[in-house]
Specification:
Layout: E1 5-8, H1 12-23, E2 28-31, H2 36-41, E3 47-49, H3 50-58, H4 63-68, E4 70-72, E5 75-79, E6 82-86, H5 88-91, E7 97-99, H6 102-115, E8 120-121, E9 125-130, E10 138-143, E11 146-151, E12 154-157, H7 164-167, E13 175-190, E14 200-204, E15 207-213, E16 219-226, H8 236-247, H9 249-254, E17 262-274, E18 277-278, E19 281-283, E20 289-290, H10 298-319, H11 323-350, H12 358-373, H13 375-385
Parallel strand pairs: 1-2, 1-12, 2-8, 5-14, 12-19
Antiparallel strand pairs: 3-7, 4-7, 5-6, 9-10, 10-11, 13-16, 13-17, 14-15, 15-16, 17-20, 18-19
The protein binds adenosine-5-diphosphoribose and P-hydroxybenzoic acid (PHB).
P-hydroxybenzoic acid binds at residues 45-47, 199, 212, 220, 293-296.
Amino acid sequence: MRTQVAIIGAGPSGLLLSQLLHLAGIDCVVLERRSADYVLSRIRAGVLEQGMVDMLDKAGVSERMFKEGLPHDGVNMSVGDTRLRIDLKGLTGGKTVMVYGQTEVTKDLMDAHTARDAKVVYEAEDVTPIDFDTDTPRVTYKKDGVTHEIACDFICGCDGYHGVSRASVPQDAITEFEKVYPIGWLGILSYVKPVNHELIYANHDNGFALASMRSHTLSRYYIQVPVDTDINAWPDDAIWDELKIRLGEEAAANMETGPSIEKSIAPLRSFVAEPLRFGRLMLAGDAGHIVPPTGAKGLNLAASDIYYLSNALIEFYGEKSMAGVDAYSQKALARIWKAERFSWWMTMLLHKFPDLGAFNAKMQQTDMDYLASSHAAQVSLAENYVGLPF
Ligand code: APR
Ligand code: PHB
């Protein structure tokens, strides 16, 4: 088999890339290790920057998002019983974010692929990128016991943090930057009314909590826990009780509780691989970088990578020029590092860390006081939260 671009991974990165390339008349094949149902069963982020909303619109997959997504003009920070509202719209000259789950984004992209009978191979085993240091790269995979080979011009590694693409690069060609936090987020999803019409990020003496949502009837909550926590130690009732404590009195009074339909613990990690291009192999999304979820940047960074990468490939086929491909890694990384900085800062500001020390605890408190008192600090938070320009 031959295609122009072989894409490994059918998460948001891979599917958005495939969709944009298709619209530009570029042929591609997506290879995904899991089944479509499995991919859709993963509950992940839920806040889209305007730039990502615009891309989904351009990709022709925005109809349901505009109908069902919830535009948010602001976001709240709560420390003890003080709540600070960051007026995202007012502070950024009119920019907002859209609350719409990654699962829904993925489903819309999958539906668009199905509708045009796109080449997506689910349950592809042993996917292996080969010869990407030459002009004739290939990808092999196994399906139903049969080995297949795809010859292509480029391989796009959109296969997440644990994917095969980054792992296939010779170790001396790649530098990895990593910060592991000693904490995790225990998340629950429950069919209850959101406690507030906007998100609340709370830093309480017991630790961080977040009140988020997927719709007017589906809520998503998180609490900070030690990273090695056994999820069985947290029955639903205990989580609701803890959320009421950490989110403050007003939220506690308004909180509707119910059974969880999903419950999981995710570790917090910052990670960047440099560069993101190795000959004819490019990494995008979680394959190249991870942010802790505190700033809601993971999914949005995947979208900005795909913005640069799709444009680079469209330029290659349209103008027979490698300039965009040559510039991809540098352009993407410049924005990635800024989102890494913001996610790290939000994480350090809002969590309780076991060995923070007295000085750093004072810095954390002062950072919060400064944010509450400074218009400039709030503008900085707001412009990052709604997303820096592509
Ligand atoms: N072969 C084929 N597919 C693979 C392989 C492999 N060896 N390894 C992983 N995959 C698939 C995974 O099963 C997954 O469906 O690649 C896909 C990667 O998807 P994501 O992990 O969702 O990564 P990405 O598309 O970059 O999306 C980034 O996901 O984790 C969140 O915070 C992150 O919201 C951000 C978004
Ligand atoms: C979510 O709704 O899952 C969510 C929202 C905001 C974050 C992280 C996750 O910062």
